[in-house]
Amino acid sequence: MVNKEWSVPKIVQHDERRIEIVNATWRIIARGGVERATMREIAAEAGFANGALKPYFPTKDDLLAFAFQHVFCRTNERIAIATEGRRGLTALVALCREVLPLDEDRVNEARIVVPYWQNAMTHPDRARFHEEALGQWRAAIGQYLLEARDDGDIAAGLTDEAITEHLITLMIGAQILAALNGSDIPDARLRRRFEEQLDTYLELLRPSR
Amino acid sequence: MVNKEWSVPKIVQHDERRIEIVNATWRIIARGGVERATMREIAAEAGFANGALKPYFPTKDDLLAFAFQHVFCRTNERIAIATEGRRGLTALVALCREVLPLDEDRVNEARIVVPYWQNAMTHPDRARFHEEALGQWRAAIGQYLLEARDDGDIAAGLTDEAITEHLITLMIGAQILAALNGSDIPDARLRRRFEEQLDTYLELLRPSR
Questions:
Q1: In angstroms, rounded to a whole number, what is the distance separating the alpha carbons of residues A27 and A150?
Q2: What are the structural domains, with CATH classification, of chain A?
Q3: Does the beta-carbon distance from B120 to A197 stay under 8 Å?
Q4: How many CB atoms are closer than 10 A to CB B22?
Q5: B170 min Cα distance to partner chain A (Å)
Q6: Are B197 and B170 in contact (CB under 8 A)?
Q7: How far is Cα A173 from Cα A56, in angstroms, rounded to an integer?
Q8: What is the C-alpha separation between A193 and A147, in angstroms, rounded?
Q9: DSSP state, B183?
Q10: Taking a C-beta distance cutoff of 8 angstroms, is the pair A91, A144 a contact?
Q11: Of the candidates B121, B128, B130, which has its C-beta nearest A114's C-beta?
C-alpha cells in the first residue's frame, strides 16, 4: 500500500522542477514556436540531461497540459491582486485586462494556450479543464456585473449572461489574434487594439448621458 | 524554359485532386483530431497509395495551409450567396452567420482552422494570409456598417472600426469555443449560443426605442 503522507514532499519538489521545465518550454515556444519545442530542446534549455524530463512529463502533451494549468494559475494570481478591494466595473476591467494579451508576458501566455487548444480538441479531459477555467471567470464576471448594475455603471438591456459571453469570447479571440499577429502592425499597437476593444465594448453598456 | 501555357491544365487537375485530399483530411480530423491525420491515414482515406500524396502536398504543413485556404474560399462563396442583393444590417448578419460555427459543417471548418492557427504562429507567411483573409471581412463589414447607419439601423456612438474589431474577435473566439466544446452542453445548444451572441451584440448597436 502506498503511504500517501510520505509522497507529499516528493510531489512538491516535483512541482518546482516542473515549473522550471515549463519556463524553459515557454522560452523556446516564444523564440521558435511549439514545433521547435521538442523534449530534447526543452531538456537542454532547462539544463536537464536528454531523457531526464520523463519522470516529470512522460510526453510533450503532458508538458503542454501542465504549462496551460500553470498559465491559468498565474493569470488567476494576477487577477486576485488586481481586483483586491475592488468591485463592480473597476473589478471587471481589472479582470479582463489580466486575461487580455496587453503585454509581452501575456502574449507569450497566448502562445502557450493556442497549442493547448489544438491539443484539447482531441483530449476531452483537457477541453473540460479549459471549460472549468472559463467557468471560474464567468462566475467572477457575473458577480462584478451585478455590482456594476447596483452602482449604476451598466444600463444595457442585455442579460448579464449575454455580456459575460461577449467578454469571454472577445478575450479568447484576442489570444489568437495576438499569438498570430500576421499584420505589419507593431506588437505594441496591436496590444493597444485589444485595450480599445474592451473600452469600446464597455462603452456600449454604459448609461447614456 | 518552362512553357507556362502548357502547365495550366495540369495545375487545374492538381487542384481537383488536392480538394479530394483536403476533404479526406477533413473527415479524419473531424473523427479523431489533427494528430490522427497523418499523411499515411489521409492517403488511405482519399484512396491514394501510401506516398502518393507527395506530388500534391510535400508535407502535412503544406496540406493544412491549402486546407485553410479552401475553408476560406468556401466560406467566402457562402457569404457571396447569402449577401447577394442584400445591404446594411441584413447583409452584415448574413456575413457573420456564414463565419460563425452555427452548424456541423462550420464546426468542422473551425477544427481545420485551429491547427492552422497554431501552425501560423511559426509561419509568418501563413499568419499574413490569415490577416489578409480577415482584411477582406473587415472591408465588407465596414461597407455594411456604413449602409446600416444610412438605413438608421445603428445608432451606437462607437466608430465603425471599433464595431468591426468586436465582430472579428467574437467570430474568432467562437471558432475556438466550438472546436473545443469542453462543456456538457449539447453541440446544438452551444451553436445557438453563438447565434445569441451575435444577436445580443447587434442589439447593443440599435437605436433605442
A1: 44
A2: 1-58 (1.10.10), 72-205 (1.10.357.10)
A3: no
A4: 22
A5: 5
A6: yes
A7: 32
A8: 27
A9: S
A10: yes
A11: B121
| Nearest residue to A34 (alpha-carbon basis) of A67, A75, A70 | A67
CB spacing of A200 vs B162 below 8 angstroms: yes
pLDDT band at B199 (very low <50, low <70, confident <90, very high): very high
Whether chain A has a CB inside 8 Å of the CB on B138: the answer is no
ipTM of the complex: 0.86
Q: Give which of A174, A63, A69 is closest to B117, Cα–Cα.
A: A174
The C-alpha cell at B123 is 509561419
Q: Which residues of B touch A162 (CB under 8 A)?
A: 196-197, 200
Tell me: the pLDDT tens digits for A68-125?
Answer: 888 889 999 999 999 999 999 999 999 999 999 998 888 888 888 888 888 888 888 8
**Nearest Cα to B22, choosing from B78, B54, B69?**
B69
DSSP summary character for residue A6? H
Determine the Cα–Cα distance for residues A184 and B20; give it in Å rounded to an integer. Answer: 34
Measure the CA–CA gap between B64 and B90, rounded to whole angstroms. Answer: 33
Cell 506516398 locates to: B51
Would you say B167 and B204 are in contact if contact means Cβ atoms under 8 Å apart? no
C-alpha–C-alpha distance, residues A148 and B80, integer Å:
42
Angle at B129 between CA A121 and CA B83, to 5 degrees: 85
In this complex, is the C-beta atom of A88 within 8 Å of any C-beta atom belonging to chain B?
Answer: no
Residues 6+ apart with CB under 8 A from A5: none
Tell me, what's the pLDDT at B9?
47
Q: Are A131 and B182 in contact (CB under 8 A)?
A: yes
Cβ–Cβ gap A158/B129 under 8 Å: no
Single-letter amino acid code for the residue at A204: L
Least Cα separation, residue B59 to chain A (angstroms): 14
CA B208 – CA A196 distance, rounded (Å): 24
Q: What angle do CA B56, A180, A195 make, to 5 degrees?
A: 155
Residue A123's CB is within 10 A of a number of other CB atoms, namely 19
